[in-house]
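Usage example:
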Amino acid sequence: MSDFTLVIGNKNYSSWSLRPWMLLRHLGLAFDEVQIALSQPDTRTHIAQYSPAGRVPVLRHGALTIWESIAIGEYLCELTGRGWPRDRAARAHARVVSAEMHGGFQALRDQWPMSARAVGRRTPMTDELAADIERIDALWSDCRQRFGANGPWLCGDYSLADAMYAPVALRFRSYGATLSAAAGSYLDTVLQDAPLQQWLADAALESWTIAYSEGGLPGG
Ligand SMILES: N[C@@H](CCC(=O)N[C@@H](CS)C(=O)NCC(=O)O)C(=O)O
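Running the assembly step on the lines above writes:
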């Protein structure tokens, strides 16, 4: 049994769960997983056993219970001294883009729901969705231009910022975002990442289907 327990939702659907899961993997921390299927009659009761906020992900570490994906990430970075860039300016930038993800991109979240195993989906392009994609493209490209010399990730080495955008990469893959060369190259890096591949393999084995999270099906 590990010191850490991460409570997550379905790997196919729970974009917020993916974020701390990716960070734990990249930090090389062993952890136990507790999975709670979302959108089931008993989901709320199950989650309530772990979090007062009624949402996943939740991290348990000893007597501590931490919820909210970004707070879990901050805790893990503080604990390990890794997961944020060492340089203060780069760290500030990584925090900014992480916070921008945590608090924004509502059109992308609503119109391109995460279904990790989905490919070849298409939805009508709206102004709001196009604006979110354009902003993320600019943000990724800017990060790569600033920090690309230090490594393949947004701020050089892998950081919480990359974990925060991992579900966006899956959405771009599922629904076919058109990206600039720099953003497209970062997307390839994310999609080829071994932990993300593991998450996808696990998601492919899940049997639950949540209809409202299956956007862009042919005829849908
Ligand atoms: N702001 C939260 C959002 C967490 C969230 O919305 N989680 C969803 C799953 S991805 C959830 O727990 N939903 C509860 C439910 O479907 O009953 C975070 O960053 O952790």
